[in-house]
């Protein structure tokens, strides 16, 4: 049985014989070396709160939620918010933030994030691609390298909230971001799901991943939770919670359910236009759900003072 | 001397291999793979599904065989048969996990090793179609799968998208992947294309409309059709039921049946 790529036994246990990953694990190739770790710590010193947005499942609304969380937190002009998109193959954040076609500029102090507002900066591989047809066909190690650069070379400045949007799964990107961010303090992960078992079965794995790497879970958001027909006002369960939805899963696994968000056609439209759904449809039930969830996340971060006690 | 004779490849009996790709997650790759397999089965074909999504394997549950085990034979792994008549067989990491909620937290090289095994070591026997269901993206799994399948000359790839621009944006990149790897694009499916309220029949375009069709036109590839959101389809997948057999009057049925027919027509044209 694999001891785990992050464990002290990685690459050295009896079970590792014959595993093609053995050398990489044994040489600790996956973890940053001490000099790099120091560099990352220095760069991330001025980040007060870090939130990872995860799922196991694709297409449940991670990027949508990350974008709205960023807008929601940045509504307080006194706060500085950063949104980092580490989905290297499918970077959705530039489009959702209305920043398609923007490029990254270099300065003496590093790469400049692309600013949506004065207090909301964004970074994504999307800004490094010259055409919307460009594919990033990279294996794991190259993706890890770029993620490290995003953390080391981007001049974020002083940030109150760093939000990290991730691709679906439990692989290179997820291991790397947790390892690289160990140089700073991660407040926790927000896990997104939809109500049906096909999603939940992947999300349980993501929760298991968080437990394995000791990443605190702020809570779970159940997205696409019901649809109210605009004409007859009847509700349909398009993605039916056949096994009890996120509510039952959260009860079973003892994690917090932050809220449920219904389907609203305006959400997709706003994402496609690069506008904030919260501003475009302030009266939508989905907007109040999102706002409540964002508030709960803010409260969680405010209570979490342990970063002030971290030993640098 | 006998030990030096080349073994018959496990894919030698497979007539057509096709991949189901997207760039985007959650658009319905596994759903389309499943429904395509069920439709082809109803046309009398023998079908296998190879699920190379190692982090989020959805296929076993969609056929209600998530608790099955994989056995070995002389030629390798025996695929899991969905029912007695053995017309659909599956392979997925889902069958190899001791605890279904355990995360498979593997970096690229380990994923690549298992995918090579999945391609070479599953004793499929004779199949009309092998459908390869993939995770979202253009990374290790995709590169390794295409490389491992190349000697067996896959028929091509079906690309699945939802209508909205955010999805189409990722699928454009997947089209580039296909071009760069020499994988023929059989067509694009626009999934979750509209929802007809079962109470009042009002159609709402929850995830917008038309993006998949426009992309097919832009890229010069066939458009295989729009599949609407259908709660009966979602329910069937949840329960591992045969949607094609049980819900022929359902709103998604015509589109799904048409996709399968276009694939069959394509292969019969090829052989004539």
UniProtKB/TrEMBL annotation, chain A:
Chief localization: cytoplasm
Compartments it resides in: Cytoplasm; Nucleus
GO biological process: iron-sulfur cluster assembly
GO molecular function, one term: 4 iron, 4 sulfur cluster binding
Entry superkingdom: Eukaryota
InterPro entries in alphabetical order: Mrp-like_CS, Mrp/NBP35_ATP-bd, NUBP1/Nbp35, P-loop_NTPase, YlxH/NBP35
Protein name as annotated: NUBP1 factor
Function: Component of the cytosolic iron-sulfur (Fe/S) protein assembly (CIA) machinery. Required for maturation of extramitochondrial Fe-S proteins. The NUBP1-NUBP2 heterotetramer forms a Fe-S scaffold complex, mediating the de novo assembly of an Fe-S cluster and its transfer to target apoproteins. Implicated in the regulation of centrosome duplication. Negatively regulates cilium formation and structure.
Automatic annotation (TrEMBL), chain B:
InterPro entries in the record: Mrp-like_CS, Mrp/NBP35_ATP-bd, NUBP2/Cfd1_eukaryotes, P-loop_NTPase, YlxH/NBP35
Subcellular location, record wording: Cytoplasm, Cytoskeleton, Cilium axoneme; Cytoplasm, Cytoskeleton, Microtubule organizing center, Centrosome, Centriole
Gene3D superfamilies listed in its UniProt record: P-loop containing nucleotide triphosphate hydrolases
Single GO term (MF): ATP binding
Entry keyword set: 4Fe-4S, ATP-binding, Cytoplasm, Iron, Iron-sulfur, Metal-binding, Nucleotide-binding
One GO CC term on file: cytosol
Keyword 4Fe-4S appears in the UniProt entry: yes
Biological process, per Gene Ontology: iron-sulfur cluster assembly
Keyword Metal-binding: yes
Quaternary structure note: Heterotetramer of 2 NUBP1 and 2 NUBP2 chains. Interacts with KIFC1. Interacts with NUBP1.
HAMAP family for the chain: Mrp_NBP35 (MF_02040), NUBP2 (MF_03039)
Biological role: Component of the cytosolic iron-sulfur (Fe/S) protein assembly (CIA) machinery. Required for maturation of extramitochondrial Fe-S proteins. The NUBP1-NUBP2 heterotetramer forms a Fe-S scaffold complex, mediating the de novo assembly of an Fe-S cluster and its transfer to target apoproteins. Negatively regulates cilium formation and structure.
Protein name, UniProt field: NUBP2 factor
Species annotation: Thinocorus orbignyianus
Gene expressing this chain: Nubp2
């Amino acid at each position: 049985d694999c001891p785990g790529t992050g464990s002290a036994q990685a690459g050295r246990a009896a079970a590792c014989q014959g595993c093609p990953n053995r050398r990489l694990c044994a040489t600790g190739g996956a973890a940053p070396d001490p000099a790099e770790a120091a560099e990352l710590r220095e760069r991330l010193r001025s980040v007060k709160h870090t939130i990872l947005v995860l799922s196991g499942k694709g297409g449940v609304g991670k990027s949508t939620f990350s974008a709205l969380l960023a807008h929601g937190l940045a509504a307080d002009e006194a706060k500085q918010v950063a949104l980092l998109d580490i989905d290297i193959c499918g970077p959705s954040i530039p489009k959702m933030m209305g920043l398609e076609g923007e490029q990254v500029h270099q300065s003496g102090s590093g790469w400049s994030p692309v600013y949506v507002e004065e207090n909301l900066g964004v970074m994504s591989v999307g800004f490094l691609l010259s055409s919307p047809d460009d594919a990033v066909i990279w294996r794991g190690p190259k993706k890890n390298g770029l993620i490290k650069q995003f953390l080391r070379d981007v001049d974020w400045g002083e940030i109150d909230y760093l939000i990290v949007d991730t691709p679906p799964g439990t692989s290179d990107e997820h291991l790397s971001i947790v390892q690289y961010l160990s140089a700073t303090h991660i407040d926790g992960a927000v896990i997104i799901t939809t109500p049906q078992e096909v999603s939940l079965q992947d999300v349980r794995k993501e929760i298991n991943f968080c437990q394995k790497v000791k990443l605190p879970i702020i809570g779970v958001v159940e997205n696409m939770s019901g649809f109210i027909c605009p004409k007859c006002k009847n509700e349909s369960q398009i993605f039916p919670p056949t096994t009890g939805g996120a509510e039952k899963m959260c009860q079973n696994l003892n994690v917090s359910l932050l809220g449920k968000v219904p389907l609203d056609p305006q959400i997709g439209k706003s994402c496609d236009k690069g506008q904030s759904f919260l501003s475009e449809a302030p009266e939508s039930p989905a907007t109040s759900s999102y706002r409540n969830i964002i508030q709960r996340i803010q409260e969680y971060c405010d209570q979490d003072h342990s970063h002030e006690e971290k030993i640098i | 001397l006998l030990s030096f004779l080349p073994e018959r490849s496990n894919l030698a009996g497979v007539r057509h291999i096709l991949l189901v790709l997207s760039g985007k997650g959650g658009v319905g790759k596994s759903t389309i793979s499943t429904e395509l397999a069920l439709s082809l089965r109803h046309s009398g074909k023998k079908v296998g599904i190879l699920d190379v999504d190692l982090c989020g394997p959805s296929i076993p549950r969609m056929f209600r065989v998530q608790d099955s085990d994989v056995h070995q034979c002389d030629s390798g792994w025996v695929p899991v048969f969905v029912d007695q008549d053995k017309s659909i067989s599956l392979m997925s990491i889902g069958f190899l996990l001791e605890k279904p909620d355990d995360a498979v937290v593997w970096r690229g090289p380990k994923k690549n090793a298992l995918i090579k095994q999945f391609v070479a070591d599953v004793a499929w026997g004779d199949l009309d179609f092998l459908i390869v269901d993939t995770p979202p993206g253009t990374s290790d799994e995709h590169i390794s799968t295409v490389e491992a399948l190349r000697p067996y000359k896959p028929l091509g790839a079906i690309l699945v998208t939802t209508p909205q621009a955010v999805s189409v944006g990722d699928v454009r990149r997947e089209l580039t992947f296909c071009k760069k790897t020499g994988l023929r694009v059989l067509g694009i499916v626009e999934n979750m294309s509209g929802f007809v309220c079962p109470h009042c029949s009002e159609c709402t375009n929850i995830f917008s409309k038309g993006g998949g069709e426009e992309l097919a036109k832009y890229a010069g590839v066939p458009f295989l059709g729009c599949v609407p959101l259908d709660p009966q389809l979602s329910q069937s997948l949840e329960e591992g039921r045969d949607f094609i057999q049980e819900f022929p009057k359902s709103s998604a049925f015509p589109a799904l049946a048409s996709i399968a027919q276009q694939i069959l027509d394509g292969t019969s044209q090829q052989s004539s």
